């Protein structure tokens, strides 16, 4: 048997275009008349039959084996099998929405958001991003704010599983990158325990948005080879970071959610060996309309004004200006123009 590429008259058989979802396989052939059409149809079918079908087919197979192992009339069994196959698989997407500017959403995030049956979103997402959710989608705010009534993580996990089991396309929409200090691991575990298919869609993390707002680079090979992500919010019972090791690494340290912890952070880092005049940049609401950027030093950090949430603290020689002097002097704190707001002012002029 011979297959001759682009020569149908001399072919004994044709290779089809194949959609492969585990044991579910769909082959498309045009008998050599138009391989391009077969490829186009394959792409369309891949969008229609997503990766969730592989796991759903395994579930259908397990249900079929259990039905055949039970005592029931063949017609009743057949009806149940057809009823199961008439549904659709549930799918959960853990989507990072970026720091706030809707133009920083990835193309994949935007596409998946447009397919959502249900969206469970955080409280700090911007209205511009929420307006991208289709009107027909069910939208639930499950955000957590300090000092306010919260939806517990256990309840969020329960809703993800419930909607996924119901065959819904669910988007768990979080600011930044949900896999960085976003409790994604807890949600992943709940979905795995319930055997629900999921996909992680990364987003632009808050530290990247903060660095862009301040006009600085998070890394610079000339002065350091380390970039450390930390959070000032810790789960009860977890030990603090090894501040001495952090101080000795050099480079830049990005601390997420520093609000209310500035004095403790400064004290611990200074005790660990960082000089008081180590430059810092604090960015609030990066890439948003109320974006605020303040340059300061580690020694002056406790005197920082409160910035709008979400905020990120960048510490180190990469993250700020040249050292301004020793001690928490007032002149060590400088508000610098927001790149976003400066661009808006330029457009007005």
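^ Assign residues to that structure.
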């Amino acid at each position: 048997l011979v297959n001759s590429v682009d020569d149908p008259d001399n072919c004994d058989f044709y290779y089809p275009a194949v959609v492969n979802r585990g044991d579910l396989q769909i082959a498309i052939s045009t008998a050599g008349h138009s391989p391009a059409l077969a490829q186009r149809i394959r792409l369309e079918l891949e969008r229609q039959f997503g990766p969730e079908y592989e796991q759903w087919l395994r579930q259908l197979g397990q249900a079929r084996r259990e039905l055949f192992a039970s005592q029931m009339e063949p017609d009743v069994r057949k009806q149940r099998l057809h009823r199961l196959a008439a549904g659709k698989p549930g799918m959960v997407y853990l989507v990072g929405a970026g720091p706030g500017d809707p133009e920083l959403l990835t193309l994949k995030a935007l596409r998946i958001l447009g397919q959502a049956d249900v969206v469970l979103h955080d409280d700090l997402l911007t209205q511009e991003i929420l307006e991208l959710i289709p009107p027909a989608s069910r939208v639930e705010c499950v955000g957590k704010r300090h000092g306010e009534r919260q939806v517990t993580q256990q309840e969020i996990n329960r809703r993800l599983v419930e909607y996924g089991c119901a065959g819904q396309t669910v988007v768990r929409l979080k600011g930044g990158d949900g896999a960085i200090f976003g409790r994604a691991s807890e949600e992943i575990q709940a979905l795995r325990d319930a055997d629900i298919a999921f996909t992680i869609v990364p987003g632009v993390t808050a530290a990247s948005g903060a660095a862009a707002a301040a006009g600085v680079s998070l890394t610079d090979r000339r002065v350091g080879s380390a970039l450390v992500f930390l959070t000032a919010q810790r789960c009860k019972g977890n030990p603090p970071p090894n501040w001495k090791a952090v101080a000795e690494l050099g480079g830049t340290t990005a601390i997420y959610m520093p609000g209310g912890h500035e004095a403790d952070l400064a004290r611990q880092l200074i005790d660990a060996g960082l000089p008081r005049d180590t430059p810092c940049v604090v960015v609030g609401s990066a890439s948003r309309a109320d974006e605020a950027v303040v340059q300061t030093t580690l020694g002056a950090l406790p005197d920082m004004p409160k910035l709008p949430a979400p905020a990120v603290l960048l510490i180190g020689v990469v993250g700020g200006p040249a050292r301004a002097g020793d001690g928490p002097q007032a002149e060590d704190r400088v508000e610098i123009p927001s790149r976003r707001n400066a661009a808006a002012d330029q457009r007005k002029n």
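The chain has three domains: 8-69, 90-204, 207-348.
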